[in-house]
Design a protein that fits this description.
The complex is a heterodimer.
Chain A (H helix, E strand, L loop, with lengths): L21 H11 L3 E2 L10 H9 L3 E2 L4 H8 L1 H10 L14 H11 L3 E5 L9 E3 L2 H19 L4 E5 L5 E9 L5 E13 L2 E7 L6 H17 L4 E9 L5 E7 L6 H8 L3 H9 L16 E8 L1 E2 L5 E2 L2 E2 L2 E3 L6 E5 L6 E2 L6 E9 L2 H14 L1 E3 L5 H7 L3 H4 L7 H4 L10 H20 L9 H11 L1
Parallel strand pairs in A: 1-2
Antiparallel strand pairs in A: 3-4, 3-5, 6-7, 6-9, 7-8, 8-11, 9-10, 11-18, 12-13, 14-17, 15-19, 16-18
Chain B lengths: L1 E6 L2 E7 L5 E3 L2 E3 L1 E7 L3 E6 L2 E9 L4 E4 L2 E9 H10 L6 E5 L4 E6 L6 E2 L4 E7 L2 E6 L4 E6 L6 E2 L4 E7 L1
Antiparallel strand pairs in B: 1-2, 1-9, 2-3, 3-4, 5-6, 6-7, 7-8, 8-9, 10-17, 11-13, 11-16, 12-15, 13-14, 15-17
Classes of the chains: A alpha+beta, B mainly beta.
């Protein structure tokens, strides 16, 4: 909001009264004189009813039209569409509404299976079920989350693919039938099906697979009469076979890494497409160079099972430097609320090759400081040094296998300094005095000692 | 004042006198200390090496030490003595507290139930996610602090386990 030219209040913090309040958002758009609404990648970005309401209000919705969203938002319908477009899908069911039917279907497919909301994607309400006695608990949780997130309790079951990588393909489609693919992103570093690290190019993706995924994504987009920016998600098994997962009918959180390697501004292109312009380039003009990585810094404690945390940000230092981009709205004094996603900031690093991108990301993460809430930084910092990440041989189990108890390797000096700081922090809190002096006597004496 | 400081798995004895002497494990250190953000961040130079320590959270104490995440506890000598005196009289009760404010969606246990460590006790909804909170240790459920449907604040006692 600090960067906005104009801001309008749309309601209180509860999403239902603000970010999900379509009528209110449209009214504010009218009042402000806006002619188009960009839904971002949050609440209403994949809501067909909202897209329709925007169009009916005479405004332009920056994204695919309501009919396309409705088709692809119905996840089992999207799977049927993929089959028609001759894109492989993992074995699965139609929407189910009760746990008894789920039990039968899961037994037929064979464990492990995934429970997925039929009404929407993005990993919300998704549960892995390893054996039958886990099914009921998982069903309860998933159906609850699906209702909260998408207003629909129905779930479908899909066969789980082992050692899979989550690879997605960015596409752009204009209103005249041109469709291009811009390249893949490997988003396999996830916990609870929420992405923590994304990178492009995918370290496991060769030219052949890239072309195949691109062509498959374009076929699906054409079959759906897709318009604007979108992402076609795939699972790629250890045997390099790929399976269609879903289409995200919006800009993705991780879109900056594609911007870094293609030099394209995806949001600007979205606006041009929404304005009726044709794509200003063809498939052959898309050039990718270098490598980019994104780390999603979240208000979650990696050393406590990634439990979300809330609190007040006391201090922020964001990294900078060549090839480093930070997309965030963090500031000291900000309250991290419980109503929204725990995403705090996106740190993006670009390099001429993957090695340089990793080096820049390590430096950026080391430079970053967030005080006030636990963050995922500890995970990200160590992940960028993990052998499986460095070699690019990781899959969707990377976070589960990450050892949060890993001892921190502090030098003797850092340990002593940390012990001193721990004592000072405790005293500052307990006594709330002495430290109000900029240069307390003990610090001065210590410094004199050092100079002797 | 003397302290016992733990940094992850390490334990050190530290002493900080009002005259500015800092010792760690009885070794005196010459530290140049700058408080860069009041009560939150210090730049500490020891033996010509500079270290930056930032408080991530105060309670529980969590430090960012040159980009490393470290859990710390500080116990002063008075508390140490008090703890030692009390040792043996403390009952084996373990509390499960809400790590964040949220909506208690479900309580999976009732008073008197026996649970294994890591058994799911409650489901807490926060940040659009349902989080299963697990039993910190095995034992018998001594108390259920809140009912399903309740809004709970961070730190609220949800379950008390009388450990075996």
């Amino acid at each position: 909001m600090r960067a906005a030219d104009a801001a309008y209040a749309i309601g209180p913090a509860a999403p239902r009264e603000s970010y999900l309040n379509a009528a209110r958002i449209i009214e504010v758009a009218r009042r402000s004189g806006a002619t188009a609404i960009h839904p971002g990648y949050g609440f209403l970005s994949e809501n067909a009813d909202f897209a329709q309401a925007v169009a009916e209000a005479g405004l332009v919705f920056v994204g695919p039209p309501a009919a396309v969203q409705r088709l692809l938002g119905e996840k089992t319908a999207a799977r049927r569409l993929a089959r028609v477009a001759e894109v492989p899908v993992a074995e699965g069911t139609e929407p189910l509404t009760d746990v008894a039917a789920a039990r039968v279907a899961a037994a037929n497919i064979g464990y492990p299976v995934l429970l997925k909301p039929a009404g929407g994607g993005g990993g919300k309400g998704m549960r892995m079920v390893r054996k039958e006695d886990e099914l009921e608990t998982a069903w309860r949780a998933a159906t609850g989350e699906a209702t909260t997130a998408f207003g629909q309790p129905a779930l479908y079951i899909e066969r789980a693919i082992w050692n899979a990588r989550h690879i997605e393909m960015q596409i752009l489609a204009d209103n005249t039938g041109n469709v291009v693919w811009l390249g893949e992103r490997d988003c396999s570093v996830q916990r609870r099906h929420q992405k923590l690290i994304e990178e492009t190019p995918g370290p496991s993706v060769g030219d052949g697979l890239r072309q195949e995924l691109g062509a498959a994504a374009v076929r699906i987009a054409r079959a759906a009469k897709y318009e604007n920016a979108g992402t076609v998600e795939f699972l790629v098994g250890g045997d390099r076979h790929f399976y269609f997962l879903e289409v995200n009918t919006r800009l993705q959180v991780e879109h900056p890494i594609t911007e870094m390697v293609t030099g394209l501004d995806l949001v600007a292109l979205q606006l041009r497409i929404a304005g009726g312009e044709p794509l200003p380039f063809a498939q052959a003009d898309v050039v990718r160079s270098g490598a980019a990585i994104e780390c999603r810094i979240t208000a979650e404690d990696p050393r406590a099972g990634f439990l979300p945390a809330s609190g007040v940000i006391a201090l922020v230092r964001e990294p900078a430097g060549p090839g480093v981009r930070v997309d965030s709205a963090l500031y000291a004094g900000m309250t991290v609320p419980t109503e929204y996603d725990p995403l705090l900031a996106k740190v993006i690093a670009y390099g001429r090759d993957r090695i340089e991108a990793i080096a820049r990301m390590r430096r950026a993460l080391e430079e970053m400081r967030v005080s006030g809430v636990p963050t995922s930084l500890a995970f990200h910092r160590s992940a960028l040094f993990h052998q499986d990440f460095i070699t690019g041989r990781y899959d969707t189990t990377f976070v589960d296998r990450w050892d949060s108890r890993m001892a921190t390797d502090l030098s003797e000096g850092a340990t002593a300094a940390a012990a001193l700081a721990a004592v000072l922090a405790t005293r500052a809190r307990v006594e709330r005095r002495a430290l109000t002096v900029a240069d307390p006597p003990w610090a001065r004496t210590a410094r004199e000692d050092a100079l002797r | 004042m003397r302290y016992e400081v733990s940094l992850d798995d390490r334990i050190a004895r530290a002493e900080l006198t009002e005259h500015g002497r800092f010792t760690i494990d009885d070794r005196a250190l010459a530290a140049d200390v700058r408080e860069t953000v009041r009560g939150r961040q210090w730049s500490i130079t020891l033996d010509g090496e500079s270290h930056e320590i930032t408080v991530v959270t105060h309670d529980p104490l969590r430090l960012d030490v040159d980009g490393h995440d470290v859990r710390a506890t500080v116990v002063d000598e008075r508390a140490l003595r008090a703890n030692r005196g009390a040792a043996g009289t403390r009952s084996g009760r373990v509390e499960l507290r809400a790590p964040m404010p949220g909506l208690l969606k479900a309580v999976h246990v009732k008073e008197g139930d026996r649970v294994a460590a890591d058994a799911p006790l409650v489901t807490l909804e926060a940040m659009k996610m349902e989080n299963e909170l697990l039993a910190p240790s095995a034992g018998r459920i001594a108390k259920v602090g809140a009912a399903a449907g309740a809004k709970v604040e961070a730190g609220a006692v949800l379950i008390v386990i009388a450990s075996d």
